[in-house]
Amino acid sequence: MAHEPGPHTLDAEAVRTWSSLALAALGRAREDIDAINVYPVADADTGTNLYLTAESADRALAAAFGEGREEPAGVTEGTPAAPAPTLSDAVRAYAHGALIGARGNSGTILAQLLRGVADVLGAEPAGRAAGPLLAQALTRAAEEAYRAVAHPVEGTMLTVAGAAARAGAAAGAVATVAESAAATAADVARAAYDGARAALAETPGQLAALGRAGVVDAGGCGLVAVLGALWQALSGQEPAAEPVRGRAVSVPPSPRPCAQEQDGPAYEVIYLLEAGEGAVGELRARLDGLGDSLVVVGGDGLWNVHVHVDDPGAAVEAGVVAGRPYRIRITHFGDERRRATAPRVQRAVVAVVQGEGLAGLCAEAGATAVPARPQEPPSVPELLDAIRRAHAREVVLLPGAAELRAAAAAAAEQARADGVRVAVIPTRSAVQGLAALAVHDPDGSFDEDVVAMTAAAGATRYGELAVAERQSFTSAGICQAGDVLGLIDGDVAVIGRGLPETAEAVLARMLGSGGELVTLVLGPEVPDALAARLEAYVQHAHLAVDTVTYRGGRHSAPLLIGVE
Fold first, then answer.
1. Which residues make Cβ contacts (< 8 Å) with residue 362, sequence separation at least 6?
2. What pLDDT is attached to residue 72?
3. Average pLDDT, integer, range 344-369
4. Which residues, 6 or more positions from 451, have their beta carbon under 8 angstroms from its beta carbon?
5. Residue 177 above 80 pLDDT?
6. Is 275 exposed, middle or buried (0-12, 13-18, 19+ CB in 10 A)?
């Protein structure tokens, strides 16, 4: 849903508008910010990381507003619409979305800044004027961001955040001292934005790496864009100028060092961590001894950990000692540089899959896997990032779900603007993607390969077993919470009490119209005995049909079925 800029009071709708405007501003500035990224590592990804972090935050906020929410096919419900979110709901959803989707050093700091804002605005103290309240929130944001960074460095995003907070606080204080009406939230936001822009312009003189390259701080540049969006959301006025970007005119430019030429650790490690406060304190100390650029953000049992190290295994092991790490991302800076400079391969396949085992299968088949989680489909930027990481002249994209077709089409369109030839095969299930991969011919012509993969996917009927979360009306009747739903081609066809019986009923219906191969993908908690039972059922009832079984791994559905 588009949110038009306009004057807002400091409420949930203002936060929604702020998020939309910030995402748009970072999208416009993304490439420019990437181009001036020299600190802490010149890997040209700060703009991208900030954009992806803001996109995750925006998606979480949209969900809080009920945007894009759809019932599964074949299920209808008469429940009333959810109540509109409060300011507290909105800022907490915004901060949480940034936390779970934070990318890179800059994205992690942005997530903590938003958490600081949420800590103040989320409390919704009664009787507080909006301007001073926002000033307090910006101050808390800067304080928490500084605390999250193990060794803060001036001339960075932190410096810009601190200057914005001081300017916002001063705006609120001036109005109060003057005994006039308290400063409005728009007044404070404008002061913070102006203070951030002024601080950003000074960063080349504060940090030697920026001065040598003749650029302002990339993370600070992104933060200025976010603060400009905040002012626009509250005032309805578009910022007079884009965030300061490009080279600082007062400093002569010099060649930017590449990531491999810089001193420092070779790997970036990022993961989400479920752990208590005490364990995280010990984790900080352990990671600080392993590398640099350590940023740990979050709270209330959920954290985002970012560090640069030479031993990524030790960094992950430290997380295991502290709690439960997941969504682990390890990037070798040298590999990133080589990918940017290496010649493109001719053709690649990018496949969206839900389940770590399925991702491994796709990788073994030579595809670039894009992991998806229940209720967390990949976004357009994430799909575009995967296409770019494939580093190919031609890309076949397998979205793996009907609801991802629009996002896949948008990502493909953007990739085509980069000169990549992209074809989207409208797969609606992972089993259709596996069927398409089975006939993929990277040495044949692109058009013939796409036709063959499309035909294989289209000839594969797909089924899925899911567990009903609540009573609902479905195309197969009324289901109760805990019932097993058997879906065929996206529609509920069977309602059962147990996985084995429902799976057999689904298989019987799917094989009723023929088939030569059954593919079973088992979820992480489904016993091997179920696979053996289903294989025996197929062998007994359909002698000419073969069966193959895979493990979907964590985050996969209880059971996927494909019939070719």
1. 349, 351, 353, 368, 369, 433, 434, 437
2. 44
3. 86
4. none
5. no
6. buried
